[in-house]
């Protein structure tokens, strides 16, 4: 056949590999209109129809809808423009499917109740901006109206959960737990107390640097005591308590007496909520950051040692 030949719909089906029914559908939709009709009224198509049908089939196999394909064929939009837009849409779909897969793996491992499953799905499908808004709401509620260390507040606001495009089940679990934690009223109240303590320190001229120095001193001396198998309630723990109490007394300009030690015990118990450390552990898991060494065993030891010498009867934080 030459280039001017016209094809019946059956011939067109054989040339393109599409069914007659499919070609008729595209023809009725105006995607590949007939060039002419036979004396008997049958549709006839020219060689351009073959080219259009090949392009339609390729674009359909790539997932483009008929509206987008029509724009390409009618030159209302270029093929690169349509392909780029479709690729962007596929990116969103792929991220969604990967997240669903991770959620299903969590469900398979945890076997949650229907209520827990709803929560997992609801929290996991939040967008990055929605996740950040949830965490920012938590920070606003706990830090709002208080003169806390600006560097610490800035660090809190910059450390946002960012689930990767293809999250592992443990990252989804960490995000769900973090989402629950940020909405926990008891946890918010505990953090608020810590921030109030920070604000009180700043009112007395304390700076964030002093806290880092004190934390480093506690870590160094307590880890050495624990490495030496010194029990916090034993007499061997007394020199450690005395040394650290004197350090706090010097930093805060107070006498190293019974009042200081009771004040220090209350201060440490306020800041020893293990959920505060858990917050950062979860954030590290979500964002793929290297885990930070836990300070909970260090401060648990120090609190127990200080309490044994202060006559306190409060339970040791878990």
What is the 3D form?
Answer: rod-shaped
Structural domain count: 3
Distance between the termini: 86 Å
Q: Compute the number of strand runs.
A: 3
| Structural class based on helices, strands and sheet pairing | mainly alpha
The whole-angstrom Rg is: 34 Å
Q: Low-confidence spans: pLDDT under 50, at least 5 residues?
A: 312-318
- What share of residues are in beta strands? under 5%
How many strands, what sense, and barrel or not for the largest sheet? 3 strands, antiparallel
Mean pLDDT across all amino acids: 84
Query: How are the strands of the biggest sheet laid out side by side?
Result: 1-3-2
N-to-C series of helices and strands:
EHHEEHHHHHHHHHHHHH
Helix residue percentage: 55-70%
The number of helical elements comes to 15
Write the layout of secondary structure elements.
Blueprint: E1 7-8, H1 9-16, H2 20-28, E2 36-37, E3 43-45, H3 47-61, H4 66-73, H5 79-110, H6 114-124, H7 128-143, H8 150-158, H9 169-182, H10 185-203, H11 208-227, H12 238-252, H13 258-271, H14 274-287, H15 296-308
Antiparallel strand pairs: 1-3, 2-3
Task: Give a written overview of the molecule.
By secondary structure, the protein is mainly α. The chain folds into 3 domains: 7-77, Multidrug-efflux Transporter Regulator, Chain: A, Domain 2 (Orthogonal Bundle), CATH 1.10.1660.10; 90-182, no CATH class; 207-308, no CATH class. The chain is 68% helix and 2% strand. It has a 3-stranded antiparallel β-sheet with strand order 1-3-2. A hairpin with a 5-residue loop joins strand 2 and strand 3. The protein is rod-shaped, with a radius of gyration of 34 Å. Residues 312-318 have low confidence and may be disordered.
């Amino acid at each position: 056949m030459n280039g001017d030949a016209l094809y019946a719909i059956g011939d067109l089906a054989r040339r393109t590999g599409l069914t007659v029914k499919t070609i008729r559908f595209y023809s009725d939709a105006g995607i590949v209109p007939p060039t002419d009709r036979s004396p008997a009224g049958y549709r006839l198509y020219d060689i351009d129809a073959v080219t259009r049908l090949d392009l339609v089939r390729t674009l359909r196999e790539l997932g483009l809808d008929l509206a987008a394909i029509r724009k390409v064929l009618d030159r209302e939009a270029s093929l690169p423009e349509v392909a780029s837009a479709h690729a962007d849409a596929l990116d969103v779909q792929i991220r969604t499917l990967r997240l669903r897969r991770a959620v299903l793996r969590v469900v398979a491992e945890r076997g949650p109740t229907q209520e827990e499953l709803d929560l997992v799905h609801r929290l996991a499908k939040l967008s990055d901006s929605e996740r950040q808004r949830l965490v920012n709401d938590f920070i606003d509620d706990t830090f709002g109206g208080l003169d806390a260390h600006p560097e610490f507040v800035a660090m809190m606001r910059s450390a946002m959960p960012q689930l990767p495009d293809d999250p592992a089940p443990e990252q989804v679990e960490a995000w769900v737990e973090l989402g629950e934690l940020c909405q926990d009223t008891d946890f918010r109240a505990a953090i608020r107390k810590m921030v109030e303590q920070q604000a009180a320190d700043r009112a007395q001229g304390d700076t964030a640097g002093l806290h880092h120095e004190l934390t480093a001193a506690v870590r160094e001396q307590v880890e050495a005591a624990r490495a030496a198998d010194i029990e916090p309630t034993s007499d061997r723990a007394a020199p450690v308590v005395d040394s650290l109490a004197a350090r706090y007394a010097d930093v805060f300009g107070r006498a190293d007496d019974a009042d200081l030690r009771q004040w220090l015990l209350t201060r440490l118990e306020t800041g020893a909520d293990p959920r505060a450390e858990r917050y950062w552990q979860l954030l590290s898991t979500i964002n793929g950051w290297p885990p930070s060494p836990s300070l909970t065993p260090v401060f648990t030891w120090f609190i127990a040692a200080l309490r044994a010498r202060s006559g306190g009867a409060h339970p040791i934080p878990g």
